[in-house]
Amino acid sequence: MERLNDAQARALLLKKPVLLLPIGAVEAHGDHLPAGTDNYLARRLAATLVERIAGATPVMLLPLLPFGQVWSLSDAPGSFSISNETVSRTVSEIGLSMLEKGLSSLAVINAHYGNVTALREAQRQLKDKGVTVAIFNYPGAAEPTKTVRERPAAHPSYMHACEIETSYMLHLAPELVRMDEAIVNYPDFPADFGEVAYRWSEFSASPVLGDATAATGEKGRIILDAVINRMAELVADLYSRQSGSRSIGETSP
């Protein structure tokens, strides 16, 4: 969208594209990955998705939202957070803006799990306004991850700067990865971690959760190929389901 002039934007809007919104965060990822890891992943996943779709489904790629909710690692030097309310309100207002242009389908490509609560709230608010929002948190990744994983996850519900996420970066942004600084870190999670809120610094000296040294670009490629294929399917489904929205330039009956 950033590169389109008015005439180009109007022509694309008449096709009632599915809007793609990448969102990440500025968050510490250890010494082997940059604080903008989630931003690079979201942006490059979105760009790869557009290439994979290759005109089969009309889409409009919006600019990256570069900040997210980072509570668990907010005290780390590489983390800068905004509130859930700010994330949710921003996405909701983007949705209302697209609705004014006769569009009704939005796919959020989210590379930071800390954003999920806020995105769910925006998703529900926008549904009541007539906008369908799909939240893509690496859909389709589960099975190929089981296939390529060599080291156990540090926690059943969390992965961060580990074998898997580092493999994503080695595939999508290898120039930013310092594998010579990769570490193995399996912290002792508090027994009540699932019930009580903890900042990760309370039980771990590093934001790495797992074995980053086991990462490879090939693992990242295998997983993310499946993710891109699944996202392309979901975007096509979003486009086929939308109906009754009014394109810019059209008038109501």
Automatic annotation (TrEMBL):
Record has Signal as a keyword: no
Entry-linked SUPFAM superfamilies: Creatininase
GO biological process: riboflavin biosynthetic process
Keywords: Hydrolase, Metal-binding, Zinc
Signal peptide extent: none
GO MF: hydrolase activity, acting on carbon-nitrogen (but not peptide) bonds, in linear amides; metal ion binding
Keyword Metal-binding: yes
InterPro entries membership: Creatininase-like_sf, Creatininase/forma_Hydrolase
Cofactor: Zn(2+)
UniProt record similarity statement: Belongs to the creatininase superfamily.
Protein name: Creatinine amidohydrolase
Organism annotation: Mesorhizobium helmanticense
Organism taxonomic ancestry: Bacteria, Pseudomonadati, Pseudomonadota, Alphaproteobacteria, Hyphomicrobiales
